[in-house]
Amino acid sequence: MRPESLPDTLPRRSVLAMTGGCAVASASVAGVASATAQSDEDSVSRESFAIREGTAEETTVYVTTSDPSGPTGFVIGGMHGNEVAGYKAAGKIADWAIGTGTLVTIPEANAVAIERGTRNDEHGHNLNREFPEWGTPGTKLARAIWDVVTKYEPDVVIDLHESTGIYGGNASNGVGQAIFTGEGSNEAARVTDYVNRNYVDDPDLAFQVGGFSSPNARPQDLLVHKASRDLGAQAFLAETYSGVSLEKRVQWHTAVVERLLTEELSPNGTVNESEPSAQTQSQSQPQSQSTDTTTESTGSTSSKPAAKITPLPTWTSVSSLDRGQTITLDASQSKVPSNNLDCYEWKVGSGGSFKEAGEKIDVTVDQNNYPVALRVVAENGSTDTDRVTLSLGC
Ligand SMILES: [Zn+2]
């Protein structure tokens, strides 16, 4: 897979817009020529406020709301002041637009430690060991952060960190290039799979999934543990390896958060239905119901392919393109049982027919509501079709 690179500054109309509004509607419902512009910036409200105001620990909480009745994501960086990529990425994420729900961000959680460039504050307090489960956080700063968490009751909590070593199944050499999460979550595996395929060149730097330590084992009293166990939030602690360039680490953190929020905040599961690792989903978990009305396969899909069009870069909103813009459409997230893919066929524009083409195609948008269809053909002749409508500045 060719690695995609994230720009230094993410556009305001970020990938989160794909979880609702135009993108999902036009990608999921055949024959819908245009959709309501729920992801426009003017439908997103932003506020910010300070915690620990007037102290050296004062820091800003950013709240972006698109649909208050939707799910809530919480992203925090800078718990450790020397883990630069985490708070740099969180600072960018605070500026993202979202298509649904609420995004709460505390980019620089431990302002004192960040100012000092040290892991802990001047008293040696490790902020990420101050959140005892079912207890009161251990410092004023930790209590202020926890007050924000409980105020917004997030469905998803993501804490961004860095490590000087690479995680190898245990933490003895470090915990970098890993996403840690609680039991029963397949999201981290799906996200690491996606990020590794699209953003990691070196297999030694592939992200892995680690589990949270049990309540009686160290490390203890982490924010993500408390959010998971006290509040039932889907909680993730992402670690990059600090031995690569800051730009790369910020890109990885940004991509991890983007994918975690896209999956978790997707209200109807339409975004994740064809993720390639979906077959690893635990059988004890209910399957997310597909709302895709364009699929031509019905009943059991166990032996049939599932077509999936994904725009690249992944934050591209297919409903807010510029005239003349070229967009890459990627079929690689389609599912083909037993890897018995025969070919990908694409139909671009309202006329014409399906033609065999590659896994990725480039489409230049020269008219509004431009339809593109992907047909995945398996060797046994079974097919599935996904459609997307490319729209101009909806
Ligand atoms: Zn850390």
From TrEMBL:
PROSITE patterns: TAT. GO terms for molecular function: hydrolase activity, acting on ester bonds; metal ion binding. Its cofactor is Zn(2+). InterPro entries: AstE_AspA_cat, Ig-like_fold, N-alpha-Ac-DABA_deacetylase, TAT_signal. Residues 70-164 form the Succinylglutamate desuccinylase/Aspartoacylase catalytic domain. It comes from the Archaea. SUPFAM superfamilies: Zn-dependent exopeptidases (SSF53187). Pfam families: AstE_AspA_cat. Residues 274-303 have a biased composition (Low complexity). Residues 264-317 are annotated as: Disordered. Keywords: Hydrolase, Metal-binding, Zinc. PANTHER family: BLL3975 PROTEIN. This is Succinylglutamate desuccinylase/aspartoacylase family protein. It comes from Natrinema halophilum.
